[in-house]
Amino acid sequence: MKLLFFSDVHGSPESFELLERHIESHAPDLLVLLGDALYHGPRNPLRPDYAPPQVVEQLNRRKEQIVAVRGNCDSEVDQMLLEFPLMSDYSTLLVDGHRFFLTHGHLWNPGQLPPIPAGAVFTYGHTHLPQLERLENGRIAFNPGSISLPKGGNPASFGFYEDGVLTVCRLQDAGEMLRLSLEP
């Protein structure tokens, strides 16, 4: 199974259009949205292309593929427009024997993990900083970064899972930034 992870769209149709190129070329089975789909939030700058209604249309076209969790900038009003569930604080996936705990990162984070088993992949967004590293008990912290408002001097990015390998890739050209095998 192939999974494409993305987070922190913050109402940017231009960023999602770039992501769609990689969706087409990678042909993932599922798209995992780790929150903050439409609203830019009071701490983030307003992008020149900020157009939440356009992002709603883009996301809804892919509603059958999307598994999503609520970000701190997502609201019930957003859910009224989106045609896939977005309001859960977390979700889990079991893929190829690997357990993924999905959350935005504002309630749980690598420093305050939820009760997940050894070897699980703690998958989150929120910080806009890519991360892919092993933690204690073989747990893995995985953040695909942000497709629209990257921070820390990082480029816009997304994540990908295939055949037991996680990667974080640049949004612009899908160049690999981080790579980790889930096998111990």
Automatic annotation (TrEMBL):
It holds the Pfam family Metallophos_2. SUPFAM superfamilies: Metallo-dependent phosphatases. Gene3D superfamilies: 3.60.21.10. The keyword Metal-binding applies. GO terms for cellular component: cytoplasm. Residues 1-160 form the Calcineurin-like phosphoesterase domain. The keyword Metal-binding applies. One of its GO terms (molecular function) is phosphatase activity. It is an enzyme of class 3 (hydrolase). Keywords: Metal-binding. Its cofactor is a divalent metal cation. Its EC number is 3.1.4.-. Belongs to the metallophosphoesterase superfamily. YfcE family. This is Phosphoesterase.
